[in-house]
Write a structure and sequence with these properties.
The protein is an alpha/beta fold. The protein contains seven helices and 13 strands. 28% of the residues lie in helices and 21% in strands. Strand 7 (132-133) and strand 8 (138-139) form a beta hairpin.
């Protein structure tokens, strides 16, 4: 039986990592607006990097379109990440190629972490439906879940495999900032890939035995769409769907095209990462 702590309410800091992908970032923010019941709980910060002036101009256009969101250009990645982490109690990490597909409450994510002191975090990408591990290109064993009776499940991630045994990640998971800072103490990282690698490499030693529980919804609330890459430091698996390079999507963005997110409402992925055909409006 999982131990329950007293609930306390607080805001939820959202930190989104993005590079050269204004089109995909727009879809993430649009889907977040569509599916979050209580956006007033969110304090959203975009940490973005640009390789050209065109990409920079597109992020400025997004900043004007989403005045409730803070946009910050990357200058010193580690210092900026730590600065964000040093203030709130809870943080939701997101990346620009993720999409929300189901309704959720931000306050519920905060309360889940307050109730379950032994939980490492709340994953929005995992669920009973994620039977396939896309990065490893193989099926994965679904862990034994405990039903929390509120639409969420809990399981022991230290006994799980593949995506289920990967408790600290950046694509769509919520954590206590104190836990993340504990893992990152004295670590070096210069970009989101290195940050996630550092979290993953240190999770087992830093979180076990105290934080063996990971929470997730019964069905994935979000998933990542790996249709391109914008970095060279990590050979992430992806499928160049429809020729959707960052540059071709930037061309469409300048033409006024945007990804339509409503068609993906209630989409049920079989993996945390799943390439899908983009639908434009």
């Amino acid at each position: 039986m999982f131990f329950a702590n007293k609930v306390k309410s607080t805001e939820l800091q959202v930190l989104v990592f993005s590079k050269d992908r204004a089109m995909q970032l727009d879809a993430l923010l649009s889907s977040l607006q569509l599916h979050c019941f209580d956006p007033q709980v969110l304090r959203t910060q975009i940490l973005f990097a640009c390789s050209t002036s065109r990409h920079s101009a597109q992020y400025r256009e997004l900043a004007a379109a989403y005045p409730q969101v803070s946009f910050t250009a990357e200058t010193d990645f580690k210092a900026q990440v730590l600065s964000v982490l040093n203030h709130p109690e809870k943080i939701l990490f997101l990346v620009d190629d993720s999409l929300f597909v189901r309704n959720f409450s931000a306050q519920q994510l905060v309360e889940l972490l307050d109730r379950h002191g032994e939980a490492a975090g709340v994953s929005l990408r995992l669920g009973q439906n994620t039977a396939y591990c896309y990065p490893l290109a193989r099926f994965q064993v679904i862990p034994r879940f405990e039903n929390l009776n509120n639409g969420f499940l809990g399981y022991d991630w230290s006994l799980a495999e593949a995506d289920f045994g990967y408790p600290l990640e950046l694509s769509s998971s919520c954590y206590r900032t104190a836990d993340v800072l504990q893992v990152l103490s004295s670590c070096s990282f210069k970009n989101p890939n290195e940050l996630e690698g550092t979290l993953a490499a240190n999770a087992r030693n830093s979180l076990v035995p105290g934080k063996k529980l990971l929470l997730c919804p019964k069905q994935s609330i979000a998933f990542s769409c790996p249709i391109n890459v914008v970095q060279t430091c990590c050979p992430n698996r992806h499928e160049l769907s429809q020729g959707c390079t960052a540059e071709s999507l930037a061309d469409l963005f300048d033409q006024g095209k945007r990804i339509a997110v409503d068609p993906y409402r209630d989409f049920l992925p079989n993996a945390c990462h799943q390439p899908v055909e983009l639908i434009f409006k």
